[in-house]
Every structure is written in C-alpha cells, then in structure tokens.
Amino acid sequence: MSIKLGIIGGGVMAEAILSRLLAQQIYDPNTVLISEPQQQRQEFLQAKYQVNVTSDNRSVTQSEVILLAIKPQVLSTVSGDLSELSSTTLMISILAGVPLKRLEEIFLNNPIIRVMPNTPATVGAAMTAIASGKHVQSHHLSLTKNIFCAIGEVVEVSESLMDAVTGLSGSGPAFVAMMIEALADGGVAAGLPRAIALPLALQTVLGTAQLIQTTGIHPAQLKDQVTSPGGTTIAGVAQLEKQGFRSAVIEAVYAAYKRSVELGQKS
Ligand SMILES: NC(=O)C1=CN([C@@H]2O[C@H](COP(=O)(O)OP(=O)(O)OC[C@H]3O[C@@H](n4cnc5c(N)ncnc54)[C@H](OP(=O)(O)O)[C@@H]3O)[C@@H](O)[C@H]2O)C=CC1
Ligand SMILES: O=C(O)[C@@H]1CCC=N1
Description:
GO molecular function: pyrroline-5-carboxylate reductase activity
Number of strands: 8
Organism: Aphanothece hegewaldii CCALA 016
Oligomer: single chain
Strand order of the largest sheet: 3-2-1-4-5-6-7-8
Number of domains: 2
Catalytic activity: L-proline + NAD(+) = (S)-1-pyrroline-5-carboxylate + NADH + 2 H(+); L-proline + NADP(+) = (S)-1-pyrroline-5-carboxylate + NADPH + 2 H(+)
Number of helices: 11
Pfam family, one: P5CR_dimer
Structural class: alpha/beta
CATH superfamily of the largest domain: NAD(P)-binding Rossmann-like Domain
Bound molecules: NADPH dihydro-nicotinamide-adenine-dinucleotide phosphate, (2S)-3,4-dihydro-2H-pyrrole-2-carboxylic acid
Domain Pyrroline-5-carboxylate reductase dimerisation: 159-263
Radius of gyration: 21 Å
Order of helices and strands: EHEHEEHEHEEHEHHHHHH
Largest sheet: 8 strands, mixed
CATH topology of the largest domain: Rossmann fold
C-alpha cells in the first residue's frame, strides 16, 4: 500500500498526533511511515501502532503528506535528506518558531502549512493553530484541517501570531500541569492524602475550564463568585497576588513566546 502520511521524527508530539489519527481512523497504519533514528523507538512505534518505520528520511519523500516533527535544531540536517522530495507533497511543520519563509527556502515548490498543536492531542482535546504558506491550495488546507480536527480544536491564524500561540497553547499544557501539581501539593500540605489531593486538583481544573467554556463567563467573574466576603477564597487569592501568581503566568507565556521567536531566528 502506498504511503499517505510520512512522519519525520517519532518523538512525543508525533506519537500524540499519530495515536489519535489512528484511533479516529483518519489513516490506516499501513499507509503511515515514520522516520526515526532510534531503533528502540522505531520498534516501540511499530509494535504499538502497527505503522511502518524507517531510519532513512529519504524513504518518506514520496508521501502525500509529510509531518515534520523533529526539533527545530535538527531542521537543517533533515532538509539535506529531503532533496528528492516530490513537489506535490504537502509539508506540515509543527516546529516551534520556524517561519514559513525559512521552510519555503528549504522546500522550494511545496505547499507548506505551519501548525502548532499541543499534547492533549492524545485524548482528542488539542488546541491547534494553522497558518498557510504561499503554495497552499484549498484542498491542502482542507486535508490539514481534517487531520487536526481529529485531534481537537483548530483555529486558523495569521503566521505573525504563531510564536504567541506557541507560548500559550503549545507550551501551556506544561504550565497547567504544574498548576495541577501545585494544587495537589497544597492539599497535601493541608493534610490530604496525595491519592485524594490529585483527583481533587484535576477535577477542579477540568470543571473550572468546562464552566468557563460552557457559560462564557469571564474568568474574573467566576473568581468573584467563588470569593465569599471574609471567607477562605479571598485569603488564598490574597496570597496568590502577594506571590505574583498572575504575573508569573503572564511572564511564563511571554518567555515561551520569546524563545519561539529565538528558535526561528536560529533555524
Ligand atoms: N512536545 C510538545 O508539546 C510540542 C512540540 N512541538 C514541536 O514538535 C517537534 C517535536 O517535539 P517533541 O515531539 O517534543 O520532540 P522529541 O524530541 O520527543 O521528538 C523529536 C524526534 O525526532 C527524532 N530525530 C532527531 N533527529 C532526527 C533526524 N535527523 N531525522 C529524523 N528524526 C530525528 C528524535 O530522535 P532522538 O530522540 O533520537 O534525537 C525524536 O524522536 C518540535 O519541533 C517541537 O517544537 C509542537 C507542539 C507541542
Ligand atoms: O517546548 C517546546 O519547544 C515545544 C514547543 C511547544 C511545546 N513544546
């Protein structure tokens, strides 16, 4: 069977996307080829997902779609392997920071779409932003939306916003995971067994996100609703403000954005 989806780099994000695409039957495993240097990782991916694997990036060049899922730092090395690329292959890059302009210098005539998904892809709850390059036609965009709608929500943005997207929703799962961990630690400090604290923390974050999403309430209004006069919540809120919680989160997203810009300049 011919290869429809070639993936270069079989790491964390490739697996997060692949697992969902196969579960949703967007691709048959026979039609997927992953190029990955580590033999142990190849064997793992082949055994778990029944996909084709290789260590030779050149084997992927005739795929209908190529998902570039390597680190931005190895793009130059990988581009040398793709000199025989078919000009009809749709290139989808999830590389943080790397601009379309740079990708179009490498893959001269190919349609290229810059995409920033996130790891909740594994459970179909990703947030993905996409920006199209100059050779992209409507059928390329439809194909890309079809792929990324299968792993969660999709938004089309101007490329100039992609580094900011990367700082927020690309890196965001790590920040939220730290918040969940810290909430659970707080519960443990207050005497809860960890086995109880973690599910409480998790459901609190999940439920709050659902509440804000479903009702459309502003986050500040929800905070006010929870905060009884002279009560427990305002005592906690005062501590968060004293410790610079909101500022820390803002600065985290901004630092991730700046790093995305920097990675693009180095690519
Ligand atoms: N992790 C995330 O949450 C997100 C990541 N991204 C982007 O996705 C990309 C991949 O990130 P992530 O999955 O976290 O990284 P990983 O390091 O987990 O995956 C990259 C994979 O590429 C392999 N690789 C290295 N060199 C080559 C090569 N020359 N040819 C083919 N494969 C190679 C690596 O192998 P080895 O380990 O042996 O080096 C590794 O398995 C990055 O560009 C990142 O910016 C985008 C959104 C979210
Ligand atoms: O940390 C990184 O560079 C990648 C990009 C977005 C999430 N992870």
